[in-house]
Design brief:
Number of helices: 15
CATH architecture of the largest domain: Alpha-Beta Barrel
Radius of gyration: 23 Å
Bound molecules: flavin mononucleotide
Strand content: 5-15%
Distance between the termini: 45 Å
Helix content: 25-40%
CATH class of the largest domain: Alpha Beta
Largest sheet: 8 strands, parallel, barrel
Order of helices and strands: EHEHHEHEHEEEHEHEEHHHHEHEHHH
Number of strands: 12
Length: 454
């Protein structure tokens, strides 16, 4: 009997929050972004609720107007290595950029997390959208958007190649004969490409899940194609059910174009649920979240998808300014959408900014109401699961303690972990080592030939 399709959940654990004002909530832990105990507590909540993974986002450039969480936070792989030791089942997903790293280093670091955690590592592949990042990495300029995705393709293919350096049974460690490894099962990649030259082999073996799970969040044309070709799971900014449904269908169709099965990639909209036990509590909590967004902060926040553009220079109550191409070299997909919506609905700058930062009304309600919406998206082609991004200090607790049991009662979410690797949580097959697979195939062809009478 096949198991029913179930939701996948990730918790975006984001210190003092996404916005500029969340740290000021009376119950917020104002130093959460650099407080390991706080991350441990959030990971425990997510693991108790049988989430698939926790996710640590990242970027590599700040200035004095960056959001409070950006200003002072942990490096994701270091943080997740520590969380690996205090959790046992939950997946651990880190953002690492391809534009400012070397494939060898990334392959080694993520593989180390994968070993330390017993096969629970995931990589959220980003191309970095803040151009000033170049100034922190001895680079004269930030690569243009299209080039960043060319870099991404080559970088990720190289990392995947390095991860297969050792076949799964390469380390014989035979004390009797003195053979530490089988020389026929160690492979050099010898990659010579446009951006990277990497000989290999990598100095770490494959982990229990074969290779770490790949995540991405492409929105633009290039981003979508990249995600459809390489990712096991895709984050998407969820604007509405219709938009998410269209994105879902588009990405699954593109994946099939890359000879992948639609089921092999999960679409995970990012949502910010606000849950209360009755309508009054829901409204109170929603208004609390709204009050944390001032227009001054919303104007700064709006700059983010436009390479931290300064919007304070425009009049607030006039039509949204004509920005031309601005944003297309930053978060192309997100900035294009903001410009399109402003134009279509004739919005002022104030309206656009508040709309961008204020909590939406979707996924706001009692536990049953929020569960109903999640079920609706899941069963009607808009999501395979969700990445939960809490707005209020106890947001993850309310979601895991109130909404998750409703979903479990409806058989939409697991009550127990059945696997122990992130790949198993996602129902993904163990990826064969490319050299083992090629040898097995060659042997099978030879055996077939031997059977055919001359
Ligand atoms: C849930 C979610 C999480 C993301 N996390 C990061 C992150 O940690 N670091 C980052 O640079 N970008 C992050 N992004 C942005 C994407 O990597 C990407 O830049 C954006 O979706 C624009 O897509 P495009 O490159 O196709 O224009 C995230 C996006 C989403 C929806």
């Amino acid at each position: 009997m096949s198991t029913p399709r179930q939701l996948k959940f990730g918790a975006m654990v984001h210190g003092v929050g996404h916005g500029w004002g969340e740290w000021r909530h009376p119950d917020a832990q104002a130093d959460a972004s650099t407080h390991f105990g706080w991350y441990q507590g959030q990971a425990r909540l997510a693991e108790d609720a049988k989430f698939d993974f926790v996710f640590i986002a990242d970027s590599l450039h700040i200035h004095e107007k960056s959001s409070p969480h950006y200003l002072n936070r942990f490096e994701p792989l270091t943080l997740l290595s520590a969380l690996a030791a205090t959790t046992s089942k939950i997946g651990l997903v880190a953002t690492v950029t391809v534009s400012y790293t070397e494939p060898f280093q990334v392959a080694r670091q993520i593989s180390s997390l994968d070993h330390i955690s017993g096969g629970r590592a995931g990589w959220n592949i980003v191309t970095s959208w803040l151009s000033a990042t170049a100034e922190n990495f001895s680079k004269a300029e930030h690569p243009p958007h299209a080039v960043r995705y060319r870099i991404a393709r080559e970088h990720v293919s190289t990392v995947k190649g390095l991860w297969d350096s050792w076949e799964d049974d390469a380390f014989t460690r035979n004390k009797h004969t003195g053979e530490f490894f089988d020389r026929g099962k160690l492979h050099s990649l010898n990659h010579q490409g446009e951006f990277f030259q990497v000989k290999g082999p990598l100095n770490i073996a494959r982990s229990r899940q074969g290779q770490p799970v790949l995540f991405q969040a492409g929105t633009s044309e290039d981003g979508r194609n990249f995600a459809a070709e390489y990712s096991d799971a895709i984050f998407v900014h969820a604007e509405s059910f219709e938009e998410s449904k269209a994105y879902y269908a588009d990405l699954k169709r593109r994946a099939e174009g890359f000879a992948r099965k639609a089921d092999d990639l999960s679409i995970l909209p990012g949502i910010r649920p606000i849950v209360g036990r009755n309508p009054e509590e829901v409204e109170h909590r929603y208004q609390q979240a709204v009050a944390l967004v001032s227009i001054e902060d919303a104007i700064v926040a709006l700059g983010r998808p436009f390479n931290d553009h300064d919007f304070t220079r425009y009049p607030l109550d006039e039509p949204f300014p004509d920005l031309g191409d601005l944003g297309s070299n930053s978060q192309k997909g997100g900035s294009d959408r903001i410009k399109r919506q402003a134009r279509e609905h004739n919005l002022t700058l104030r309206q656009v900014a508040l709309d961008f930062s204020r909590p939406r009304r979707e996924f706001v309600g009692t536990p049953e109401q929020v569960a109903d919406q999640i079920q609706h998206w899941f069963e009607n082609g808009a999501a395979d699961g969700f990445i939960i991004n809490s707005l209020l200090p106890d947001g993850l607790r309310c979601f895991t303690e109130w909404v998750i049991p409703v979903l479990q009662n409806r058989d939409l979410h697991r009550r127990h972990y059945t696997g122990s690797t992130l790949r198993e949580h996602f129902g993904l097959a163990f990826p064969a080592n490319r050299y083992t697979a090629a040898r097995d195939e060659a042997q099978a062809t030879q055996a077939q030939k031997a059977q055919v009478p001359a």
